[in-house]
């Protein structure tokens, strides 16, 4: 299982820097980097809410899930 974070593309679409985003959300740029690099083990709902408000998007625009066991060609594992 792999949760993917799409902050980079959302920031580019909105012309927003990581620093400006971090300030608006209320967390450090280092913590944004941890999220972007997939090293975060959890995200607080309050942080997710703030990110959605700043980016004017839904949680599903920021996060997605992919089954790492499914081959990229769409065939079932096994």
Strand-helix topology:
Layout: E1 2-5, H1 7-14, H2 18-25, H3 29-36, H4 45-55, H5 59-62, E2 63-66
Antiparallel strand pairs: 1-2
Detailed description of the structure:
Helix 2 crosses helix 3 (29-36). The protein has one domain (2-66): lambda repressor-like DNA-binding domains (434 Repressor (Amino-terminal Domain)), CATH 1.10.260.40. It is globular and about 35 Å long. The protein has helices at residues 7-14, 18-25, 29-36, 45-55, 59-62; strands at residues 2-5, 63-66. It is mainly α. The protein has a two-stranded antiparallel ribbon. Residues 7-62 form the HTH cro/C1-type domain. It comes from Microbacterium protaetiae. This is Transcriptional regulator. One of its GO terms (molecular function) is DNA binding.
Provide keyphrases for this structure.
5 helices, Cro/C1-type_HTH, two-stranded antiparallel ribbon, Transcriptional regulator, DNA binding, 434 Repressor (Amino-terminal Domain), mainly alpha, 78 residues
Overall spatial form? globular
Fraction in beta strands = 5-15%
CATH fold-level name: 434 Repressor (Amino-terminal Domain)
Query: What fraction, in percent, of the residue positions are helical?
Result: 40-55%
> Main sheet: which strands, in order across?
1-2
The total of beta strands comes to 2
**What profile does the largest beta sheet have?**
2 strands, antiparallel
Mean pLDDT across the residues is: 90
Number of helices: 5
Q: What's the N-to-C terminus distance?
A: 16 Å
- Return the domain count: 1
- Going by helix content, strand content and strand pairing, the class is mainly alpha
As a whole number of angstroms, the C-alpha radius of gyration is: 14 Å
Relevant CATH superfamily = lambda repressor-like DNA-binding domains
CATH architectural arrangement: Orthogonal Bundle
Return the CATH class: Mainly Alpha
Low-confidence regions: none
Order of helices and strands: EHHHHHE
Domain HTH cro/C1-type: 7-62
Protein name: Transcriptional regulator
InterPro entries: Cro/C1-type_HTH, Lambda_DNA-bd_dom_sf
Pfam families: HTH_26
